[in-house]
Amino acid sequence: MVTTHNLGFPRIGARRELKFALESYWKGQSSRDALTALGATLRQRHWQQQSALDLVPVGDFSFYDQVLDTSFMLGNLPERARHFHGDTLDNVFRVARGRSAQGAEEHTACCAGIAAGEMTKWFDTNYHYIVPEFTADTTFRLDASRLLQQLAEARAQHVRAKPVIIGPVSYLWLGKAKDDTDRLALLERLLPVYAELLAQLAAQGVEWVQIDEPVLVTELDADWQQALGHAYRQLATDHIRVLLASYFGPLQDNLPLACRLPVAGLHVDAVNARDELPSLLKLLPSDKVLSLGVINGRNIWKADLAATLDWLEPVAAQLGERLWIAPSCSLLHVPVDLASEQKLDADIRSWLAFALQKLDELAVLATALNRGRTAVAAELAENAAAIAARRTSPRVTNPAVKAAVSCISPALGQRQSPYPVRIRKQSALLALPPYPTTTIGSFPQTAEIRQVRSRYKAGELSEAAYRTAIQAEIAHCIREQEALGLDVLVHGEAERNDMVEYFGEQLDGYAFSQFGWVQSYGSRCVKPPILFGDISRPKPMTVEWIRYAQSLTDKPMKGMLTGPVTILNWSFVRDDQPRSVSCQQLALAIREEVLDLERAGVRIIQIDEAALREGLPLRRSQWQAYLDWAVEAFRISANGVQDETQIHTHMCYSEFNDIIAAIAGMDADVITIETSRSDMELLDVFDDFKYPNEIGPGVYDIHSPNIPTREHIVQLMQKAAERIPAGRLWVNPDCGLKTRQWAEVIPALTQMVAAARTLRATV
Ligand code: GLN
Ligand code: ZN
């Protein structure tokens, strides 16, 4: 008999119950008891929904983040959070979100304000965790209360519980040393705490514990590999069985190591590492369980069950009881329940599986393995029909798009002339002053604008009334920019709910769910659009608004688009063709829009690639291949224009050192980036690389309500000019202004424009 299990379940709730409860608690509108009660309700519901499994994950529930919970469990709080004498959960939130100083003087050392912990992406997902902090003085002390309480709850519910914890090596790997401590040097201090934890779980009668070591799918130096061996030799015990879990990719050169570790079982991502199965079967000692992640935990597509059984049945025959099956990774990265979707097109809906449906698929596979395919003949037939329908659907395949992709040649990504020639023509035409000022695109998204959009969507507002309302907003936005004295204006993006969804909604090949939310961090969720078919653009998407905006001003209007790589990286994408091909299709669609904008007389076009960096593969050895096709897609989208048309791009992050060549390869005439918090030091990378084109280093942080001063901006730009010739610098904020109020934007931009004027006086 094959054993079924799950690595983790989404905790946010099918209707984002946890999000709303958290936000209400943070606002002081509901009690902590109400919040913890909701947590218990969600856990209970989620265990109930997983009850068909042989082993159910416990401890995967978190009010904020599982890595932060691990830091608390291991007694590794940043110094600034250690002396809090309130409730632990409140301290979790303090570290997660930061808190501004408040309350009585005598509490400055305990309850006063603290800075939020740093947040970063969990491997190659869009989930963000709170980075553990280490110093030479870091010590660890076990507090397993949270996990043990969840275990007790699960037991009371007669759940066949398998506690889930992050392993010691991945925990150290995920953290950051705040001094020059070598994180691995802390392993000796950490292992006794893990040993104690395993002993406590064993004392509770736990048979299996899942220890996640996702570092196993990354490129590990010899010392990290040795650390894994050392850790699991130290932790080896007869009292509890360890299932060591890897996911998100193949093991590659860590495979022999993973097979050798003295644990009772190994979980591998069989969706991404199918090719490694023969080596695994050869190298894994015959007393160990092999858990295969056979259902993709990262996408929303139905699995092809018959095809899976074709390769899985022989493995099951070979392994017998030693075979376990599960989703490839925690289901944290997919929405909860397809059954909630009432508005999705019926065809597309029939091709999808969210978390609960994925568990159903797993159950079908298990039954087929245990009792033969005939025992689930109806389920398999239904699955086969859906897979076949999707494969042959004319909604998925568009021959014209396929033909256009096959005609892509390097010439398509090539501007007419090199940058020095272009910039001369552009300068002559645009006649901008030195240190030209601009913004990144969006202006405040007021409650009124949101209401206009949602009433229009709900059919309560006519098309004509909607257009009038948006035009009024654009006109207002342009009046404000003219009054501020900005040089290159934008229309303000009032018509856009989201920079990807807006384009997805107008492209053929995209679908939208109502409840397809996935946790991004804390209470924040995203609802990625579903890229299901060949992408085409039935009609212009932005031209009408930009043309209207340009008609209101003599200043140059910057047309605003989202780039193909960002649209791709923020979508659920197809599993039936390479990401690179979907990206090419998006690039062709955006290219058409660029050319239409140019024909409409728009002289400057910005193509945002906010998520280009996010698409980098886990392994560095694969970076170049990704960057090659991503940069090429950008170039295809941008480079069909005349020399005179100025292409801008924007990226709102501050790590360019390892991708600067690719950034330069995009060959945008102007790039605007986030720099204000790095004190312009980020520009060193551009300087060292001799980045040739124009740069707008952000001069103030738009995430903060603080108003920058003219002096500070001047200083920043002077630092910038030490690195980049002044003649190639623009002055702009770090990112779009949609989350700010007009009352913040006007004074901030006033200072920015004043700073640019001061700087001009110096050239
Ligand atoms: N043009 C977008 C805006 O201004 C860019 C947003 C982003 O980079 N995340 O809102
Ligand atoms: Zn940005």
TrEMBL record:
5-methyltetrahydropteroyltri-L-glutamate binds at residues 16-19, 121, 126, 524-525, 570, 614. Keywords: Amino-acid biosynthesis, Metal-binding, Methionine biosynthesis, Methyltransferase, Repeat, Transferase, Zinc. It holds the Pfam family Meth_synt_2. Its EC number is 2.1.1.14. Pathway: Amino-acid biosynthesis; L-methionine biosynthesis via de novo pathway; L-methionine from L-homocysteine (MetE route): step 1/1. The active site is at 703 (proton donor). Catalyzes the transfer of a methyl group from 5-methyltetrahydrofolate to homocysteine resulting in methionine formation. This is 5-methyltetrahydropteroyltriglutamate--homocysteine methyltransferase. It comes from Microvirgula aerodenitrificans. The gene is metE.
